[in-house]
Design goal:
Keywords: Cytoplasm, Glycosyltransferase, Purine salvage, Transferase
CATH topology: Rossmann fold
Low-confidence stretches: none
Distance between the termini: 20 Å
Number of domains: 1
Shape: globular
Number of strands: 9
Order of helices and strands: EEHHEHEEEEHEHEH
Strand order of the largest sheet: 5-6-4-3-7-8-9
GO biological process, one term: purine ribonucleoside salvage
Number of helices: 6
CATH architecture: 3-Layer(aba) Sandwich
Protein name: adenine phosphoribosyltransferase
Radius of gyration: 16 Å
Helix content: 25-40%
Pathway: Purine metabolism; AMP biosynthesis via salvage pathway; AMP from adenine: step 1/1
Largest sheet: 7 strands, mixed
Structural class: alpha/beta
Mean pLDDT: 90
Subunit structure: Homodimer.
Length: 191
């Protein structure tokens, strides 16, 4: 992996080629973004593409979804000069939490948590994750924000699949993702 190489022309999504395919089986995401996050220009361009549709929008806080949304979410919060909130899998927060059960992309039942005093009514929150596939994880994060009185200002992910879950997210919230239309069918079919 060459962490110094930057293509001469950098079109939206050029950095997606840095992502490595899954070699461990169906209980893992089909692409791993670790190499993308290790590439300084790739990460910078990815975050820029995610935030571009929200320029000028009122955003008070960025929330990243456990675990990969932490990296992109924290980077987006730094660029926006906003606070960052970690929405965690159950059992990792040692403070008062609000919990939301959900089913993840692999069909496993899980619980997501957020600290109860982090979101005040009316706070506008940009939710960030690596991927929206079935909408289970993102829907749980949305429900946590809204149950605490927050407003989902938008949803940003490296990929929002053209699936039932992805279409539901796009129909109900302002969204941004990094996959150019010409590559979307490959990401939808996990190729």
């Amino acid at each position: 992996m060459d962490l110094c190489h930057v293509p001469t022309t950098r079109e939206k999504g050029w950095y997606l080629a840095l992502m490595a395919p899954n070699v461990k089986g169906r209980n893992y995401a089909w692409l791993d973004p670790s190499r993308l996050y290790c590439h300084p220009q790739g990460l910078q361009d990815c975050v820029g593409d995610l935030l571009q549709p929200f320029q000028g929008d009122p955003i008070d806080m960025v929330a990243g979804i456990d675990p990969m949304g932490f990296i992109l979410g924290a980077a987006a919060a730094a660029v926006l000069q906003k606070s960052f909130l970690a929405i965690r899998k159950a059992g990792h927060l040692c403070v008062q939490t609000l919990a939301q059960p959900y089913t993840d992309y692999s069909g496993r039942e899980k619980v997501m948590e957020v600290c109860t005093d982090a979101i005040s009514p009316g706070l506008r929150i940009l939710l960030v994750d690596q991927r929206v596939e079935t909408r289970g994880t993102m829907r749980a994060a949305i429900q946590l924000v809204e149950r605490l009185g927050g407003v989902v200002a938008g949803i940003a992910a490296v990929c929002i699949e053209d699936s039932e879950g992805g279409r539901w997210i796009r129909e109900h919230y302002k969204c941004a993702h990094c996959v150019p239309p010409i590559l979307q069918p490959r990401f939808d079919r996990h190729q």
